[in-house]
Design a protein that fits this description.
Blueprint: H1 22-25, H2 66-70, H3 76-84, H4 93-97, H5 100-129, H6 134-150, H7 154-157, H8 162-184, H9 257-262
The structure holds iron/sulfur cluster.
Iron/sulfur cluster (SF4) binds next to loops.
Length: about 290
């Protein structure tokens, strides 16, 4: 198995201190299991404080806002503010809500950048983990193109078809996953395949899922305590409420911070390189600074 080298993805991490609470003002919420209230688009969430930080960030799940935990802008928020606001003072939530033109502008740029940054998150991981060769070269070429696009100005960004970039990256990530998982498994061992399957509530305590294809699987509330998830592909898997206590996710592919934030775990859960243990798992404060 290739050495797992971790390239910095710092610019793909949300930094709410450099944003303008875009995700708490711009979208509309419908009261549901994810958000405890209705909120029109362009209106500040009532939980938002005047300093643009969330007033309940350490109780989001308990107060009925798990959707906020599960959302990750991948650093697109602060970049959208940089691109659209530039050197001007950042608007307060109230000022942003009162300026429909600015809200629309920021919303368009944020929507594009969020998709590009998410693609970059995964492409960067693939580049870092693939061995030298044609596949790695192809993934790196795509990563570099998307990185350049994400660094464009507003005029370019508003015309980007970010969904098309995601579709372009999909087959490359698929090939990278196949290559990396086959290299990780003992010869002749076939990985479990649960791609896109609804395995909500499944009892997989101690299960041997090394190298499994769990892409886009629904694992809500699944019991994965002590499971062997090494080198499993978890791209887009829904881990809300899943229990990862004692599980081994070393080398698991395409895992995001919000997947971990939305799951449960403990001090003995082993994580993929480059991802921090959510503070909530060990009794700390919530995951969000917003
Ligand atoms: S993070 Fe807090 S302020 Fe922002 S939308 Fe969620 S509950 Fe509201």
């Amino acid at each position: 198995m290739p050495e797992q080298v971790v390239r910095s993805r710092d610019h793909l991490q949300a930094d709410c201190s450099r944003c303008a609470a875009l995700c708490c003002v711009l979208p509309a919420f419908s009261a549901s299991a994810d958000f405890a209230l209705d909120k029109p688009a362009g209106t500040p969430c009532p939980n938002l404080r005047a300093d643009a930080l969330c007033g309940i960030h350490d109780q989001l799940v308990e107060r009925g806002f798990p959707g906020c935990v599960a959302f990750d802008c991948f650093g697109a928020g602060q970049r959208a503010v940089e691109v659209v606001i530039g050197e001007r003072p950042r608007p307060t939530p109230a000022a942003l809500g009162a300026d429909p033109a600015l809200s629309t502008d920021l919303g368009v740029v944020l929507g594009v950048l969020r998709q590009l940054h998410e693609v970059l998150w995964h492409l960067t991981e693939a580049v870092d983990r693939l061995p030298a060769g044609p596949l790695r070269d192809d993934v790196e070429a795509e990563r570099a193109e998307v990185e350049a696009l994400a660094g464009s100005d507003r005029a370019v960004l508003v015309g980007v078809d970010a969904s098309a970039r995601r579709r372009r990256a999909g087959p490359l990530l698929e090939r990278a996953s196949g290559e990396l998982r086959s290299r990780a498994l003992p010869r002749g061992q076939r990985p479990a395949r649960h791609r896109g399957a609804d395995r909500s509530g499944v009892r997989w305590r101690g299960a041997r899922l090394r190298g499994a294809d769990l892409r886009a699987a629904l694992l809500l509330g699944a019991d994965l305590r002590g499971a062997d998830l090494r080198d499993a592909d978890l791209l887009g898997a829904d881990l809300r409420g899943a229990d990862l206590s004692g599980a081994d996710l070393t080398g698991a592919l395409f895992v995001t911070r919000t997947q971990l934030d939305a799951a449960r775990g403990d001090a003995s859960t082993r994580l993929p390189a480059g991802l921090a243990r959510p503070a909530r798992w060990t009794g700390g404060r919530g995951p969000l600074s917003r």
